[in-house]
């Protein structure tokens, strides 16, 4: 493996002169929506009607917004409901219950989202950046670099699109609703902190201001931006924090997750523990199992020791992820027997451990593969 870079900036700068995404009602809170319409000489009270259509009724056709005056409808929709993204391709797996969509943003950037329906829930996995600047060598998105941050509304629209599909019965199983959102798509969510927190607030704001989801159904992942984890701890939004650890020792993690050269394993796990202590929400430790790289039995023991050192009150849960390999990559999934031994050793140390149900392997399941192929 090559030497890891010594530093990665906490937030990577985007190119100057880049146009911003269209402003959308999901970028604004209720007061902001009213103020925008008023500034445009339009009735402020129409903002609530537009929000009801978007978040409550999941309408995307202005012709169905019959409570808006015909003479102002186009202007109102243009002001607060501009088109944000266009679906280029949707691929299905698991008999149609897994749907991966490739989206083209207004400036041509490509991102992906995935809708996964289970018997007891429906989850949307969203992207928060076009590309990613964290440079993890086993990640398809990380190899492409960062193009730009996504806006709050672009993030929210991925969930609303999934909610529409569920409500309209387009996913096998009949009409339903989205119950969970995971920020585990393209990008490092905490490197786009303000937009991600804005999206979380829109997802959890009561309808019609937002989608009215429970914060406990929202998971925000990070590779370990320690200052941002601490900032999230103080937000007062009890989302689930998922820490993509992937190695329990600095020597290996420096190579697998280059930001570790700035924030060590100890610092990162301490920040996650602080989040759990403050919010009383159990943290999920994400660990991609890579054959011969990080799946040794002794690393399972070390991981258990690192996590137990912070407390044994059930503050943490380990989620082992069978690696979804990318074409031509040397990174491959662990042997099942090594995976089982890893689980056994963690459980022997009292660490709750599960192996993620991987979906979508036949549709370029690893995040970033579809966008890379299209590009």
From TrEMBL:
Keywords: 4Fe-4S, Cytoplasm, Disulfide bond, Iron, Iron-sulfur, Metal-binding, Methyltransferase, rRNA processing, S-adenosyl-L-methionine, Transferase, tRNA processing. GO terms for biological process: rRNA base methylation; tRNA methylation. Residues 1-31 are annotated as: Disordered. GO terms for cellular component: cytoplasm. The keyword Nucleus does not apply. Its cofactor is [4Fe-4S] cluster. InterPro entries: Aldolase_TIM (IPR013785), Methyltransferase_A (IPR040072), RNA_MTrfase_RlmN (IPR027492), rRNA_lsu_MTrfase_RlmN/Cfr (IPR004383), rSAM (IPR007197), rSAM_sf (IPR058240). The active site is at residues 112, 367. [4Fe-4S] cluster binds at residues 132, 136, 139. CDD domains: Radical_SAM (cd01335). It is an enzyme of class 2 (transferase). Its EC number is 2.1.1.192. Binds 1 [4Fe-4S] cluster. The cluster is coordinated with 3 cysteines and an exchangeable S-adenosyl-L-methionine. It catalyses: adenosine(37) in tRNA + 2 reduced [2Fe-2S]-[ferredoxin] + 2 S-adenosyl-L-methionine = 2-methyladenosine(37) in tRNA + 5'-deoxyadenosine + L-methionine + 2 oxidized [2Fe-2S]-[ferredoxin] + S-adenosyl-L-homocysteine; adenosine(2503) in 23S rRNA + 2 reduced [2Fe-2S]-[ferredoxin] + 2 S-adenosyl-L-methionine = 2-methyladenosine(2503) in 23S rRNA + 5'-deoxyadenosine + L-methionine + 2 oxidized [2Fe-2S]-[ferredoxin] + S-adenosyl-L-homocysteine. It comes from the Bacteria. PROSITE patterns: RADICAL_SAM. PANTHER family: 23S RRNA METHYLTRANSFERASE, RADICAL SAM CORE DOMAIN-CONTAINING PROTEIN. Reaction proceeds by a ping-pong mechanism involving intermediate methylation of a conserved cysteine residue. Belongs to the radical SAM superfamily. RlmN family. This is Probable dual-specificity RNA methyltransferase RlmN. It comes from Nocardioides seonyuensis. The gene is rlmN.
């Amino acid at each position: 493996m090559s030497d890891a870079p010594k530093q990665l900036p906490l937030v990577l700068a985007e190119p100057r002169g880049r146009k911003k995404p269209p402003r959308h009602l999901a970028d604004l809170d209720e007061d902001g929506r009213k103020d925008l319409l008023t500034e445009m000489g339009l009735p402020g009270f129409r903002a609530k009607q537009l929000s009801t259509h978007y978040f409550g009724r999941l309408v995307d056709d202005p012709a169905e917004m019959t409570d808006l005056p015909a003479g102002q409808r186009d202007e109102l929709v243009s002001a607060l409901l501009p088109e944000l993204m266009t679906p280029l391709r949707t691929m299905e797996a698991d008999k149609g219950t897994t749907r991966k969509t490739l989206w083209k943003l207004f400036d041509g950037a490509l991102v992906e989202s995935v809708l996964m329906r289970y018997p007891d829930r429906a989850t949307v996995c969203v992207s928060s950046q076009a590309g990613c600047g964290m440079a993890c060598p086993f990640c398809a998105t990380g190899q492409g670099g960062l193009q730009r941050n996504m806006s709050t509304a672009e993030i929210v629209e991925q969930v609303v699109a999934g909610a529409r599909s569920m409500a309209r019965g387009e996913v096998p199983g009949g009409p339903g609703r989205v119950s969970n959102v995971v920020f585990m798509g393209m990008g490092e969510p905490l490197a786009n902190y303000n937009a991600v927190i804005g999206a979380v607030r829109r997802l959890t704001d009561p309808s019609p201001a937002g989608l009215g989801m429970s914060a406990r159904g929202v998971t925000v992942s990070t590779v370990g931006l320690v200052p941002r984890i601490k900032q999230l701890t103080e937000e007062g939004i009890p989302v689930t924090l998922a820490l993509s650890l992937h190695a329990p020792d600095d020597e290996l993690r420096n190579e697998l997750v280059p930001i570790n050269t700035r924030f060590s394993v100890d610092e990162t796990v301490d920040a996650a523990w602080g989040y759990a202590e403050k919010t009383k929400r159990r943290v999920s430790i994400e660990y991609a199992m890579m054959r011969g790289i990080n799946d040794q039995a002794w690393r399972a023991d070390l991981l258990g020791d690192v996590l137990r050192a912070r407390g044994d009150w059930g503050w943490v849960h380990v989620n082992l992820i069978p690696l979804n390999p990318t074409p031509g990559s040397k990174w491959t999934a662990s042997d099942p027997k090594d995976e089982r031994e890893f689980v056994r050793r963690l459980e022997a140390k009292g660490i709750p451990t599960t192996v993620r149900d991987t979906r979508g392997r036949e549709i370029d399941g690893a995040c970033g593969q579809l966008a890379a192929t299209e590009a």
